Amino acid sequence: MAGSTRWTVPPERLDLRFEDKRPSFDGKEAFAEASRCLYCYDAPCITACPTSIDIPTYIRKIATGNLRGSARTILKSNLLGYSCSRVCPVEVLCEGACVYVGWGRKPIEIGRLQRFAMENARQPSLLPRAEKREGSIGLVGAGPASLACAGTLSLLGYETVIYEKAELPGGLNVSGIAPQKIRAEEVLDEVGFIQDLGVEIRTGQALGRDFSGQELLDRHDVVFFAPGLGADSLRGLSGARGEGLVGAVEWIARMKLDPGTSLDGIRSAAVLGGGNTALDVVQELASLGVPEVCLVYRRSEEEMPGYEHEWLGARKLGVRLLEQAAVTRVARDSNGALSGIELVRTEGGRPTSERLTSVECQLVVVATGQERLIELAAQFPGVACDELGCVIADEETLVTGNPRVFTGGDCRNGGKEVVNAVDEGQRAARAIDSLLRGES
Predict the structure, then answer these.
(1) On the chain, which terminus has fewer CB atoms closer than 10 Å, C or N?
(2) What is the mean pLDDT of residues 313-327?
(3) Quick check: is 183 in a domain?
(4) The whole model's pTM is what?
(5) Which of 336, 366, 396 is the last residue of a domain?
(6) Are residues 253 and 270 in the same domain?
C-alpha cells in the first residue's frame, strides 16, 4: 500500500469497551483550564518535555481563542502532538514539573489542553513546506520515530518513503498502547496527517524479506532505521509455550485489532513483569472483567520500574501483587489447557529453590521485555549494536557507524516513551538535512 492509502481497523473489538483515561475538554473547560496557567517565563514544563514544546505559548493561545496558532505552536516542535497528548506520562513529565505541584496544588492539565488544540485545529496547512529538494530518504518502520522523521523531512522538501512490515502503520502506537490512552483508529488518523505532509507509506514490506539493506541504500540517498523492538521475550518459558500463554505486546495487539479476541472462560490471569507494559495489561484484564488478576514481579514493590500512578490505578481495580517471585513451571491439564503457574521466591531478582506458592489461572501474559533486532541492524554495513542490543549512534545526530544510515526510537534507546521516539526522529531529520545540504 502506498500513496494516499488510508487504513482502517475492524469493529467489535475488546478495546472499544474502554473509556478515555483523560477525556477531551469542551471549549469552556479548555478556556477555564488555560486561564489558570501562569505563563512562566522560565517554564519548567518546557524543560520536562523531550520535544521542548513551548507549552505556555500554546496554552495562552487557547485562552485567547487562537486554536490554529496553538496547534501550530505544538506541531512546530512535535509532529505527533496529538498522540503524545494522549499517551505521554504527563504525571512525570510536563505536568509533574508544573510550578503548581511545588505549591501543593493541582497542576495545569497540559495533556488535555494539547489534545484539545490538536483535535480542533490540526491541519497540514499550518506548517510551511519548502520547495522540492534533491534527496530521497527511505525509512524502516512506521512507528513514531519514522513518522516524525519522515514528516519533518517532507516539510523540508525531500522525498520520503516509509517501509513497514506490518499491514498497519503506526508501530506500537497503533498496536501496543493501552486503549484507555488511545485507540488504533485515532492513531491511524494521525498517520493520515503525516501522509498529508507528503510522506509515502508502504505496508507489508519487510527488511530482510522483501529487500535487503543494500537494496534500500541503492534506492535512497539516506536510510533511517527505526523498526522498534522484536517479539515479546519468552526466555525461560520456552517449554511452556502454547494456548493461554502470550507475550504482552501480542496480547495488546490482539485486544486492539482482532475482533475474534475473547476473555470468555478466563476466571484468573497472571501477568509477569513490573514495568509499565505489565501495569497496562493488568489494568486492562481487570477492567475487562477477569475476576482475579495478579502481577508477578521478581523484585520488591518498591523496585518496580513502572510508574507509581499506574500501579495505584491497578491496585484500585483489585490487582494483587506477588512480589519477589518467579515462575518455575507452567501447568497444563490433560487437554493441554493452561491451568496455573508455580512460583519460587527470588533474592536480588534471581530464583531460589524455595517454593512460594501455586496460582490457578487460565491466562499468563509475559511482560518482561522484547527481543532486540541485532540481525536486522546488521543488514547495513557499519551499523552495530551494543551489549544490550541497542543500535549504536551519535547521541545528537543519531548517525550510525554508516554515514548514510541514521536511527532512532526503541531500537536505539531500548524502549522509552513515544515522545522520546518523536524527538529522536526529528533530530535525525535535521541531521539528515544537514548531510544532504553538504553541511556535515
Answers:
(1) C
(2) 96
(3) no
(4) 0.95
(5) 366
(6) yes
**Which residues, other chains included, contact 279 with Cβ-Cβ below 8 Å and sequence gap of 6+?**
295, 306, 307, 310, 311, 313, 314
Sheet holding 292-296, edge to edge: 245-247, 363-366, 268-272, 292-296, 320-322
Mean pLDDT of 357-361: 94
Count: domains in the chain: 3
Q: What is the bridge-based pairing of β-strands 222-225 and 350-360?
A: unpaired
CATH number of the structural domain spanning residue 425: 3.50.50.60
Residue 309 has pLDDT above 90, yes or no: yes
C-alpha cell recorded at residue 6: 488510508
Could you report the per-residue pLDDT of 251-308, keeping only the tens digit for each?
A: 999 999 999 999 999 999 999 999 999 999 999 999 999 999 999 999 999 999 999 9
> pLDDT of 166-176, one tens digit each?
999 999 999 99
- Residues 430/79, Cβ–Cβ less than 8 Å: no
Exposed/middle/buried for residue 379 (C-beta within 10 Å: 0-12, 13-18, 19+)? buried
Q: Looking up cell 536480588, which residue turns up?
A: 348
User: What residues have CB less than 8 Å from 186, skipping those under 6 apart?
Assistant: 82, 83, 86
| 2 has a pLDDT exceeding 50 | no
| DSSP notation for 274-309 | -SHHHHHHHHHHHHTT-SEEEEE-SS-GGG--S-HH
| DSSP code per residue over 217-235 | HHH-SEEEE-----SBP-T
- pLDDT bracket for residue 98 (50, 70, 90): very high
The predicted structure's pLDDT at residue 5: 85
> In whole angstroms, how far apart are CA 64 and each of 55, 95, 99, 152, 319?
14, 21, 22, 28, 44
Residues linked to residue 222 through DSSP beta bridges, in sequence order: 137
Average pLDDT, the chain: 94
Q: Hey, what's the cell of 423?
A: 524527538
Q: From edge to edge, which strands make up the β-sheet containing 200-203?
A: 200-203, 159-164, 136-140, 222-225, 405-407
* Bridge partners of residue 402, in order along the sequence: none
Q: Note down the domain range covering 387.
A: 132-165+204-230+372-436
- Lookup: cell for 88: 505521554
